[in-house]
Give the backbone structure.
Amino acid sequence: NLNKGARPLSVKDMNTEVHLNRNSASVPYLKMQLPHSSVALESIRVSFPQALLSLEKGQDLSPFAHQITADMVLSKLSVNPKDLSMLEPSLRRINEHVELRAALHGTLDSLRLRDVELKYNKHTVLKADLFVKGLPNLNTTYVRATCRDFHINAGIVQDIISDLSRVPFSVPQQVTNLGPIHYRGQITGDMR
């Protein structure tokens, strides 16, 4: 348990393969079933220099950041926050699923997430691409998000707040009057 009083992570079923050698690790597929959630990963591959294996715990990865490459296709992650309550106990109050699809490619210091799609309670909330440059140092990391559609409405906000607080919640009429809010465009900035 990561949080006092939290329930441990429970895995009902898992099917995968893992391939390791001196310069790479790959998982051609991963299917995992938690009590209320599921993960379907089509592939993940990480390549790294052999010298990385001799690093001491806590040693800086920065000199190797341009040599560590990753490719991943997450075909569907369907999470009921109840299954993550070991991280934050209040998450067990949320009854709706959060779904995520994405593809990741690049080096640690220059990662691209493509075709990111995020859903809450079967409503698409975000479709975007993301570029992150400068990891592992967060103080120098630059992020550019290209939102094809960010969508939220009073009902979604109301559901999330009600689930977290366990108290019926109504957003103010002024918020409801706004109607659906959509955003398309770019968001850029530094992580610091």
Remarks:
- Helices lie at 154-165, 173-178.
